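Translate sequence into C-alpha coordinates.
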Amino acid sequence: MLLTLLLATETSPPKPLLLAHYMPWYESRPVSGHWGWHWTMGKLDPDRGEAASHYRPLMGLYDSGDLQTINCHLSLMKLAGIDGIFVDWYGDVDHYDYGIIHRNTQKLFHATRRMGMKFALVYEDQTVPQLIRGGKFAESDAVAQGKRLFGWVERNWFRSAHYLKQGGKPVLLVFGPQYYQPEQWRAMLPQTAFYTLHYRREPALGAYDWPYPREAGSREAFRKRAQTMPAFIPVAFPRFHDYYAQAGVHESWGHIGDDGGKTYERTLKESLSASMPFVQIATWNDWGEGTQIEPSKEFGYRDLETTQRLTKSRFRPADLRLPIRLFALQKKHYGKAKVQERLAAIGSLLNSGRTSEAERRVDKAEAELRAR
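Result follows.
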Protein backbone atom coordinates (compact mmCIF):
# COMPACT_ATOMS: atom_id res chain seq x y z
CA MET A 1 0.00 0.00 0.00
CA LEU A 2 2.79 2.41 0.93
CA LEU A 3 4.62 1.62 -2.32
CA THR A 4 1.45 2.35 -4.31
CA LEU A 5 1.06 5.72 -2.61
CA LEU A 6 4.71 6.60 -3.23
CA LEU A 7 4.46 5.66 -6.90
CA ALA A 8 1.27 7.71 -7.29
CA THR A 9 2.99 10.70 -5.70
CA GLU A 10 5.98 10.38 -8.02
CA THR A 11 3.95 10.02 -11.21
CA SER A 12 1.06 12.42 -10.53
CA PRO A 13 1.51 15.73 -12.38
CA PRO A 14 1.66 18.82 -10.17
CA LYS A 15 -1.62 20.65 -9.67
CA PRO A 16 -1.82 23.59 -12.11
CA LEU A 17 -2.18 27.10 -10.79
CA LEU A 18 -5.65 28.48 -11.47
CA LEU A 19 -5.82 32.19 -12.28
CA ALA A 20 -8.90 34.27 -13.08
CA HIS A 21 -8.83 36.93 -15.80
CA TYR A 22 -9.72 40.15 -13.99
CA MET A 23 -11.14 43.43 -15.34
CA PRO A 24 -10.08 46.45 -13.18
CA TRP A 25 -12.06 48.99 -15.20
CA TYR A 26 -15.35 49.61 -13.35
CA GLU A 27 -16.24 53.05 -11.96
CA SER A 28 -19.21 53.77 -9.71
CA ARG A 29 -20.80 57.06 -8.73
CA PRO A 30 -20.48 56.47 -4.95
CA VAL A 31 -16.69 55.99 -5.25
CA SER A 32 -15.55 57.78 -8.43
CA GLY A 33 -18.31 60.39 -8.68
CA HIS A 34 -19.70 59.00 -11.93
CA TRP A 35 -20.65 55.73 -13.59
CA GLY A 36 -17.93 54.49 -15.94
CA TRP A 37 -18.40 53.25 -19.50
CA HIS A 38 -18.20 49.58 -18.56
CA TRP A 39 -21.38 49.88 -16.50
CA THR A 40 -23.14 52.18 -19.00
CA MET A 41 -21.60 51.54 -22.46
CA GLY A 42 -22.35 55.21 -23.00
CA LYS A 43 -26.10 54.70 -22.89
CA LEU A 44 -27.45 53.18 -19.68
CA ASP A 45 -28.06 54.79 -16.30
CA PRO A 46 -27.31 52.67 -13.20
CA ASP A 47 -29.07 55.27 -11.05
CA ARG A 48 -32.26 54.02 -12.74
CA GLY A 49 -31.38 50.37 -12.17
CA GLU A 50 -29.77 49.88 -15.60
CA ALA A 51 -26.42 48.30 -16.38
CA ALA A 52 -24.61 47.16 -19.52
CA SER A 53 -24.95 43.45 -18.81
CA HIS A 54 -27.51 40.68 -18.96
CA TYR A 55 -26.49 39.87 -15.38
CA ARG A 56 -25.95 41.69 -12.07
CA PRO A 57 -23.21 41.29 -9.47
CA LEU A 58 -24.52 39.85 -6.23
CA MET A 59 -22.57 42.53 -4.35
CA GLY A 60 -24.09 45.32 -6.49
CA LEU A 61 -22.44 47.56 -9.09
CA TYR A 62 -18.99 48.33 -7.73
CA ASP A 63 -15.86 50.40 -8.31
CA SER A 64 -12.60 48.66 -9.21
CA GLY A 65 -10.61 51.25 -7.29
CA ASP A 66 -12.42 50.49 -4.03
CA LEU A 67 -10.17 48.48 -1.69
CA GLN A 68 -13.12 46.78 0.02
CA THR A 69 -14.30 45.56 -3.39
CA ILE A 70 -10.81 44.27 -4.19
CA ASN A 71 -10.56 42.49 -0.84
CA CYS A 72 -13.99 40.93 -1.31
CA HIS A 73 -13.11 39.63 -4.77
CA LEU A 74 -9.77 38.16 -3.73
CA SER A 75 -11.28 36.54 -0.63
CA LEU A 76 -13.95 34.91 -2.80
CA MET A 77 -11.26 33.59 -5.12
CA LYS A 78 -9.14 32.13 -2.33
CA LEU A 79 -12.13 30.39 -0.79
CA ALA A 80 -13.03 28.95 -4.21
CA GLY A 81 -9.56 27.51 -4.85
CA ILE A 82 -8.30 30.19 -7.26
CA ASP A 83 -4.59 30.94 -6.89
CA GLY A 84 -4.35 34.37 -8.47
CA ILE A 85 -5.31 36.75 -11.26
CA PHE A 86 -4.40 37.65 -14.83
CA VAL A 87 -5.10 41.39 -14.98
CA ASP A 88 -6.37 42.99 -18.19
CA TRP A 89 -3.95 45.95 -18.46
CA TYR A 90 -3.70 48.90 -20.84
CA GLY A 91 -0.35 50.38 -19.89
CA ASP A 92 0.41 53.42 -17.74
CA VAL A 93 -0.37 56.41 -19.99
CA ASP A 94 -3.30 58.55 -18.86
CA HIS A 95 -5.60 58.39 -21.91
CA TYR A 96 -9.27 57.38 -21.93
CA ASP A 97 -9.52 55.15 -18.83
CA TYR A 98 -6.04 53.62 -19.22
CA GLY A 99 -4.64 55.61 -16.30
CA ILE A 100 -7.53 54.57 -14.04
CA ILE A 101 -7.02 50.93 -15.01
CA HIS A 102 -3.30 51.23 -14.25
CA ARG A 103 -3.89 52.74 -10.82
CA ASN A 104 -6.46 50.07 -10.02
CA THR A 105 -4.00 47.41 -11.17
CA GLN A 106 -1.40 48.77 -8.75
CA LYS A 107 -3.94 48.39 -5.93
CA LEU A 108 -4.74 44.88 -7.08
CA PHE A 109 -1.12 43.81 -7.14
CA HIS A 110 -0.54 45.21 -3.66
CA ALA A 111 -3.60 43.28 -2.41
CA THR A 112 -2.56 39.99 -4.07
CA ARG A 113 0.88 40.24 -2.48
CA ARG A 114 -0.69 40.87 0.91
CA MET A 115 -3.01 37.88 0.49
CA GLY A 116 -0.32 35.54 -0.81
CA MET A 117 -1.81 35.18 -4.29
CA LYS A 118 -0.17 35.21 -7.72
CA PHE A 119 -0.63 37.91 -10.33
CA ALA A 120 0.32 38.44 -13.98
CA LEU A 121 -0.47 40.84 -16.81
CA VAL A 122 -2.51 40.48 -19.97
CA TYR A 123 -1.33 43.50 -21.96
CA GLU A 124 -3.63 45.12 -24.51
CA ASP A 125 -1.39 46.48 -27.27
CA GLN A 126 -4.49 47.74 -29.10
CA THR A 127 -3.92 50.81 -26.92
CA VAL A 128 -0.82 51.84 -28.90
CA PRO A 129 -2.60 53.21 -32.02
CA GLN A 130 -5.09 54.93 -29.71
CA LEU A 131 -2.23 56.65 -27.90
CA ILE A 132 -0.65 57.66 -31.21
CA ARG A 133 -3.93 59.12 -32.50
CA GLY A 134 -4.38 60.85 -29.13
CA GLY A 135 -1.04 62.63 -29.55
CA LYS A 136 0.66 60.88 -26.62
CA PHE A 137 3.66 59.92 -28.77
CA ALA A 138 4.58 59.57 -32.45
CA GLU A 139 4.34 56.25 -34.27
CA SER A 140 8.11 56.33 -34.71
CA ASP A 141 8.44 56.29 -30.91
CA ALA A 142 6.16 53.29 -30.32
CA VAL A 143 8.97 50.81 -29.69
CA ALA A 144 10.81 53.24 -27.44
CA GLN A 145 7.59 53.71 -25.47
CA GLY A 146 7.22 49.93 -25.24
CA LYS A 147 10.77 49.62 -23.87
CA ARG A 148 10.04 52.33 -21.31
CA LEU A 149 6.76 50.67 -20.31
CA PHE A 150 8.15 47.16 -19.84
CA GLY A 151 11.25 48.54 -18.14
CA TRP A 152 8.91 50.02 -15.53
CA VAL A 153 7.01 46.72 -15.29
CA GLU A 154 10.23 44.76 -14.81
CA ARG A 155 11.39 47.02 -11.99
CA ASN A 156 8.04 47.27 -10.21
CA TRP A 157 6.16 44.01 -10.86
CA PHE A 158 8.18 41.31 -12.63
CA ARG A 159 10.70 41.13 -9.78
CA SER A 160 8.04 40.46 -7.17
CA ALA A 161 8.06 36.98 -5.62
CA HIS A 162 4.28 36.96 -6.15
CA TYR A 163 4.47 37.68 -9.88
CA LEU A 164 3.69 34.50 -11.84
CA LYS A 165 6.86 32.84 -13.15
CA GLN A 166 7.61 30.01 -15.54
CA GLY A 167 11.12 28.64 -15.66
CA GLY A 168 12.17 31.60 -13.56
CA LYS A 169 10.80 34.09 -16.10
CA PRO A 170 7.79 36.38 -15.54
CA VAL A 171 4.69 35.29 -17.47
CA LEU A 172 3.26 37.92 -19.82
CA LEU A 173 0.19 37.54 -22.04
CA VAL A 174 -0.83 39.90 -24.84
CA PHE A 175 -4.40 40.14 -26.05
CA GLY A 176 -3.42 39.70 -29.67
CA PRO A 177 -0.94 41.09 -30.62
CA GLN A 178 -2.95 43.77 -32.36
CA TYR A 179 -0.15 46.25 -33.05
CA TYR A 180 3.44 45.27 -32.34
CA GLN A 181 5.28 42.91 -34.71
CA PRO A 182 7.63 40.05 -33.70
CA GLU A 183 10.84 42.02 -34.17
CA GLN A 184 9.40 44.86 -32.10
CA TRP A 185 8.49 42.51 -29.23
CA ARG A 186 12.05 41.16 -29.30
CA ALA A 187 13.40 44.69 -29.02
CA MET A 188 11.03 45.74 -26.22
CA LEU A 189 10.62 42.85 -23.85
CA PRO A 190 12.91 41.75 -21.05
CA GLN A 191 13.25 38.00 -20.55
CA THR A 192 9.68 36.71 -20.19
CA ALA A 193 7.54 33.62 -20.69
CA PHE A 194 5.47 35.33 -23.40
CA TYR A 195 2.07 34.08 -24.65
CA THR A 196 -0.08 35.30 -27.53
CA LEU A 197 -3.81 34.84 -28.14
CA HIS A 198 -5.14 31.67 -29.90
CA TYR A 199 -2.00 31.23 -32.07
CA ARG A 200 1.68 31.14 -31.13
CA ARG A 201 3.34 34.15 -32.73
CA GLU A 202 7.05 34.88 -32.47
CA PRO A 203 8.73 35.45 -30.08
CA ALA A 204 6.11 33.79 -27.87
CA LEU A 205 6.75 30.63 -25.90
CA GLY A 206 3.18 29.55 -26.64
CA ALA A 207 -0.44 30.64 -26.91
CA TYR A 208 -3.45 30.85 -24.63
CA ASP A 209 -7.02 29.94 -25.44
CA TRP A 210 -10.10 32.17 -25.11
CA PRO A 211 -13.85 31.68 -25.68
CA TYR A 212 -14.56 32.45 -29.33
CA PRO A 213 -18.31 32.24 -30.01
CA ARG A 214 -18.14 33.06 -33.71
CA GLU A 215 -16.16 29.96 -34.61
CA ALA A 216 -17.62 26.55 -33.81
CA GLY A 217 -14.94 24.10 -32.81
CA SER A 218 -12.41 26.78 -31.90
CA ARG A 219 -11.60 25.01 -28.63
CA GLU A 220 -10.83 21.73 -30.40
CA ALA A 221 -8.78 23.57 -33.04
CA PHE A 222 -6.73 25.24 -30.32
CA ARG A 223 -6.02 21.90 -28.65
CA LYS A 224 -4.67 20.54 -31.94
CA ARG A 225 -2.44 23.59 -32.48
CA ALA A 226 -1.28 23.43 -28.87
CA GLN A 227 0.24 19.97 -29.46
CA THR A 228 2.96 21.65 -31.55
CA MET A 229 3.74 24.38 -28.96
CA PRO A 230 6.39 24.27 -26.25
CA ALA A 231 3.69 25.43 -23.81
CA PHE A 232 0.11 26.71 -23.80
CA ILE A 233 -2.46 28.04 -21.34
CA PRO A 234 -5.90 26.37 -21.49
CA VAL A 235 -9.05 28.32 -20.69
CA ALA A 236 -12.18 27.61 -18.66
CA PHE A 237 -15.29 29.74 -19.11
CA PRO A 238 -18.96 29.64 -18.08
CA ARG A 239 -20.67 31.20 -21.12
CA PHE A 240 -20.43 34.13 -23.56
CA HIS A 241 -23.42 36.48 -23.65
CA ASP A 242 -22.39 40.02 -24.50
CA TYR A 243 -24.39 43.23 -24.28
CA TYR A 244 -22.83 45.16 -27.18
CA ALA A 245 -25.76 44.91 -29.61
CA GLN A 246 -28.30 45.84 -26.90
CA ALA A 247 -26.24 48.93 -26.03
CA GLY A 248 -25.76 49.89 -29.68
CA VAL A 249 -21.95 49.65 -29.45
CA HIS A 250 -21.55 47.14 -32.30
CA GLU A 251 -22.99 43.78 -33.28
CA SER A 252 -22.71 40.89 -30.85
CA TRP A 253 -19.62 38.68 -30.96
CA GLY A 254 -21.95 35.69 -30.70
CA HIS A 255 -23.20 33.43 -27.95
CA ILE A 256 -21.98 30.43 -25.96
CA GLY A 257 -24.68 28.96 -23.74
CA ASP A 258 -24.37 28.53 -20.00
CA ASP A 259 -26.04 25.10 -20.21
CA GLY A 260 -27.09 25.16 -16.56
CA GLY A 261 -23.48 25.45 -15.40
CA LYS A 262 -22.25 22.51 -17.50
CA THR A 263 -20.20 24.72 -19.84
CA TYR A 264 -18.03 25.90 -16.98
CA GLU A 265 -17.75 22.49 -15.34
CA ARG A 266 -16.74 20.87 -18.62
CA THR A 267 -14.19 23.49 -19.65
CA LEU A 268 -12.68 23.68 -16.16
CA LYS A 269 -12.32 19.89 -15.94
CA GLU A 270 -10.68 19.75 -19.37
CA SER A 271 -8.33 22.63 -18.58
CA LEU A 272 -7.22 21.28 -15.21
CA SER A 273 -6.39 17.93 -16.84
CA ALA A 274 -4.29 19.48 -19.64
CA SER A 275 -1.00 18.96 -17.73
CA MET A 276 0.03 22.59 -18.12
CA PRO A 277 1.37 24.71 -15.24
CA PHE A 278 -1.39 27.34 -15.47
CA VAL A 279 -5.09 27.52 -16.29
CA GLN A 280 -6.91 30.78 -17.02
CA ILE A 281 -10.57 31.39 -16.20
CA ALA A 282 -12.24 33.76 -18.66
CA THR A 283 -13.37 35.62 -16.72
CA TRP A 284 -13.80 36.71 -13.13
CA ASN A 285 -15.80 39.81 -13.96
CA ASP A 286 -16.35 40.76 -17.60
CA TRP A 287 -20.00 41.63 -17.07
CA GLY A 288 -20.30 43.25 -20.50
CA GLU A 289 -19.49 39.95 -22.23
CA GLY A 290 -21.30 37.81 -19.66
CA THR A 291 -18.31 35.55 -19.01
CA GLN A 292 -18.11 36.24 -15.27
CA ILE A 293 -17.89 33.56 -12.60
CA GLU A 294 -18.14 36.21 -9.89
CA PRO A 295 -21.33 35.62 -7.83
CA SER A 296 -24.38 37.04 -9.58
CA LYS A 297 -28.06 37.49 -8.84
CA GLU A 298 -28.83 35.05 -11.66
CA PHE A 299 -26.40 32.21 -10.81
CA GLY A 300 -25.54 32.87 -7.18
CA TYR A 301 -22.35 31.11 -6.07
CA ARG A 302 -22.81 28.18 -8.43
CA ASP A 303 -19.64 28.63 -10.50
CA LEU A 304 -17.48 29.20 -7.43
CA GLU A 305 -18.92 26.08 -5.82
CA THR A 306 -17.98 24.17 -8.99
CA THR A 307 -14.47 25.63 -8.72
CA GLN A 308 -14.25 24.55 -5.08
CA ARG A 309 -15.27 21.03 -5.95
CA LEU A 310 -12.97 20.57 -8.94
CA THR A 311 -9.93 22.11 -7.22
CA LYS A 312 -10.64 20.08 -4.06
CA SER A 313 -10.61 23.25 -1.99
CA ARG A 314 -10.49 22.74 1.76
CA PHE A 315 -13.20 25.35 2.23
CA ARG A 316 -16.98 24.83 2.31
CA PRO A 317 -19.62 26.30 -0.02
CA ALA A 318 -20.98 28.13 3.04
CA ASP A 319 -17.64 29.93 3.40
CA LEU A 320 -18.14 31.54 -0.01
CA ARG A 321 -21.01 33.62 1.42
CA LEU A 322 -18.82 35.35 3.99
CA PRO A 323 -16.91 37.92 1.88
CA ILE A 324 -20.07 39.47 0.39
CA ARG A 325 -21.81 39.45 3.78
CA LEU A 326 -18.79 41.30 5.17
CA PHE A 327 -18.74 43.69 2.18
CA ALA A 328 -22.43 44.52 2.71
CA LEU A 329 -21.75 45.41 6.35
CA GLN A 330 -18.79 47.58 5.37
CA LYS A 331 -20.86 49.55 2.88
CA LYS A 332 -23.89 49.87 5.15
CA HIS A 333 -21.75 51.30 7.96
CA TYR A 334 -19.45 53.44 5.83
CA GLY A 335 -17.76 56.23 7.77
CA LYS A 336 -18.11 54.56 11.19
CA ALA A 337 -14.47 54.14 12.15
CA LYS A 338 -14.90 51.71 15.06
CA VAL A 339 -17.29 49.49 13.10
CA GLN A 340 -14.96 49.49 10.09
CA GLU A 341 -12.02 48.49 12.29
CA ARG A 342 -14.03 45.59 13.66
CA LEU A 343 -15.08 44.48 10.19
CA ALA A 344 -11.51 44.76 8.87
CA ALA A 345 -10.44 42.32 11.59
CA ILE A 346 -13.00 39.83 10.27
CA GLY A 347 -11.51 40.31 6.81
CA SER A 348 -8.09 39.39 8.19
CA LEU A 349 -9.55 36.17 9.56
CA LEU A 350 -10.97 35.33 6.13
CA ASN A 351 -7.65 36.03 4.43
CA SER A 352 -5.87 33.69 6.84
CA GLY A 353 -8.41 30.92 6.19
CA ARG A 354 -10.00 31.03 9.66
CA THR A 355 -13.49 30.86 8.21
CA SER A 356 -15.32 29.35 11.20
CA GLU A 357 -14.23 32.16 13.47
CA ALA A 358 -14.94 34.71 10.74
CA GLU A 359 -18.46 33.30 10.32
CA ARG A 360 -19.16 33.59 14.06
CA ARG A 361 -18.02 37.20 14.04
CA VAL A 362 -20.03 38.07 10.93
CA ASP A 363 -23.15 36.53 12.51
CA LYS A 364 -22.56 38.53 15.68
CA ALA A 365 -21.83 41.79 13.83
CA GLU A 366 -24.96 41.44 11.68
CA ALA A 367 -27.14 40.82 14.75
CA GLU A 368 -25.65 43.65 16.82
CA LEU A 369 -25.64 46.22 14.04
CA ARG A 370 -29.21 45.33 13.10
CA ALA A 371 -30.32 45.93 16.68
CA ARG A 372 -28.86 49.44 16.84
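Note: The first helix runs from residue 2 to 11.
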